[in-house]
Amino acid sequence: MIRSFYRLFFLFAFCCASLQAQSALDYQEEDQRLFEAMVDRLQSSATLQGPTSERLIALGKTFLGTPYVAKTLEQEGDEQVVLNLRGLDCTTYIENVLAFDRLFQNKQSALEEFGQQLEYIRYRNGQLQGYSSRLHYFTDWIRNNEQKGLIKNMTAALGGVEEERAINFMGTHPQYYPQLSAESEVKKIRKTEETLSKEAFCYIPLDQIEGIEQQIASGDILALVTSIKGLDVTHTGFAIWQGEQLHLMHASTSGEVVISKKPLREYLKGIKKNMGILVVRPL
């Protein structure tokens, strides 16, 4: 009797520990339906057996027409892993495509496993530990996911130029971020910003893109560098070659996930305060 009690006690304790280890997943019934439809359609697709670049383009195209929705990760209360397939912003589009690729490459198919892939990509060192653990700045996102072995920053190798840049927009404008109402959270963000600002900022200027364009591959992640004080990047998407022209496949603020009608260099000319790009290659 006593042995049975202790067995049950330790089983209960183990289950509780397992539940605590898995971060809360925030999704709606429609997200689950969309996820299951995606898995059914693509899990055995021959397209997903090819090189990384081909897989990402195929996955990226499945989201074409998905509405653009800003700030889908900004929820009330404690930070959770948000799984929203109904509407995407430019970063969550990238993250969802990468997460689906990792899911299929790992022979996984459960919604909870997809949530774990999102968490691994979206948060510092792959673990949700509060709002400040989210990789808010895209240069931070790049550096941390490069450390995880998921991507390689190609910018310097393509002839990018370095400059000193103070990245501190969130820390100097906490009023724009409801989750930064607590001073303790602001301090954590500022600590991250101090680290980012100490590192050299490397990018490919607008007038140099033509010279390196042929070295950009379909499936590369392109991040648009801004001159806005305190920021690094304001938009991102996937490079995609259409015939002999390089375009951008992205969650466009104009309304939905699209492939840009204009070639990349022409498209960038229409972006206010754009200085150039970062080029990142998924592995």
From TrEMBL:
Keywords: Signal. Pfam families: AmiA-like (PF07313). It comes from the Bacteria. It comes from Aureicoccus marinus. This is DUF1460 domain-containing protein. Residues 1-23 form the signal peptide.
